[in-house]
Amino acid sequence: MRLFQHKEAYRALGFPEFRAYVIGNTFFTIALLIQEVLIAYEIYKITHNPLALGLIGLAEAVPFISLVLFGGHFADNHNKKRIMQFTLSIIILASCILLYSSSQLRYGDAQMHIYVIYFVIFLIGLSKGFFNPAASSLNPFLVPKEVFANAATWNSSFWQFGSIIGPGVAGFLYAYAGIEGSLFIVILLLLVVMICILQIKSRPVPIKNVIHESIWQSLAEGISYVFKTKIILYAISLDLFSVLFGGVIAILPIFAEDILHVGAEGLGILRAAPSIGAVITMVTLIYFPPLNKAWRNLLLAIAGFGVATLVFALSTNFWLSVAALFFTGAFDSISVVIRQTVLRFYTPDEMRGRVSSVNGVFVSTSNEMGAFESGVAAKFFGTIPSVILGGCVTLVLVSIVAIKSGDLFNLKIEDELKLRE
């Protein structure tokens, strides 16, 4: 695998709109993850119920999955930048509602505050059903096709950097600034995201999309394209099931409070550990892209994710647990770069919104529904057994897909990208 020259490694960052996009995406990630950690810890302190943590994922996943396919159709046929601005405004409003409710908690009913939290999460899920497809489908228009792999790596690196900062500081913000001060910072960060979006020019709707067809025909076309394109279907399906069953993020408050006994500060470290592993790996992937024998690398990465999950489940030492989570992030980052490059490379411009929305359904199902699954499994099977089961399921699924996808093992996306330059 050849070493990228300095200029090539930073090529995507030479495009100003792409820089604004990834900076905005970073602040968006930081803001929502700070809020996510605060919400999870607040709810668990009030309820001490794993199922209440699982319901956080469900409250966001249901509206998101219900709307994201329509969001993809909408993004393909309307101004993507304006969609992002409008839906981000709703997310900011939802965060303001959460801040107000938190400020009234000392005077009001804790149970009512929990209802407000779930309502805010539901509202954010609705908004992301349109925001995410618009943002994902706008991203490829900001760089030439030959820069897709480099752009995917940088985009994932910035996202993972935000994933480190957000959870990493959330616990300390909660401990030293309180819930209200922390939520105020979240709102300020979201306003920075709005400023970044303003730096991106609006893109015209592709000519092919001007032909009027019913929304159901449009959605069916996007879904059909994903299911008939084997590499896209397998790539996003692997991510769905590995995170759905093997993810542990949603129940980290239980490990922090009841198993490792490290409190809010320890929760912040645990929550940030996967992203630290991911960022370090992403920096390496900028110079050594995993696109030569991409499918083999993807399967090995997800298998590594499953093994690291098992180590985390069995660990009773805080720093071993941190290390295991570090490696889940490292392995996941490899699969993210390969998956994002596959989506960019094999999707026609006029279908990017719909394909992104189908991918969004899979991602949301794995993340938010995975959070619900984690809470339910922890409630009924116990926290540690549920994580062991998830790691084992991930390894079994990788083995099944490896057997069924033998023809993809010689895929060299990097060589195809060179031919298109």
Describe the fold and architecture.
By secondary structure, the protein is mostly helical. The chain has a single domain, classed as Up-down Bundle (Growth Hormone, Chain: A), CATH 1.20.1250.20. Helices cover 81% and strands 0% of the residues. It contains 16 helices and no strands. The chain has helices at 6-9, 16-47, 50-77, 80-103, 110-138, 148-176, 178-198, 215-228, 230-246, 252-259, 263-287, 294-314, 318-346, 352-381, 383-404, 413-420. Helix 2 runs parallel beside helix 6 (148-176), helix 3 (50-77) runs antiparallel to helix 14 (352-381) and helix 6 (148-176) runs antiparallel to helix 13 (318-346). It is globular. Mean pLDDT is 79; it is low at 1-5 and 417-421.
State the CATH class.
Answer: Mainly Alpha
Q: Give the overall shape.
A: globular
* Arithmetic mean pLDDT: 79
What CATH architecture would you give?
Answer: Up-down Bundle
Tally of discrete structural domains = 1
Low-confidence stretches: 1-5, 417-421
Query: Helical proportion?
Result: over 70%
State which percent range the strand residues make up. Answer: under 5%
The biggest sheet, with number of strands, parallel, antiparallel or mixed sense and barrel status, is:
none
Number of helices: 16
Radius of gyration: 21 Å
List SSEs in N-to-C order. HHHHHHHHHHHHHHHH
CATH superfamily membership: MFS general substrate transporter like domains
- At the fold tier of CATH, the topology name is Growth Hormone, Chain: A
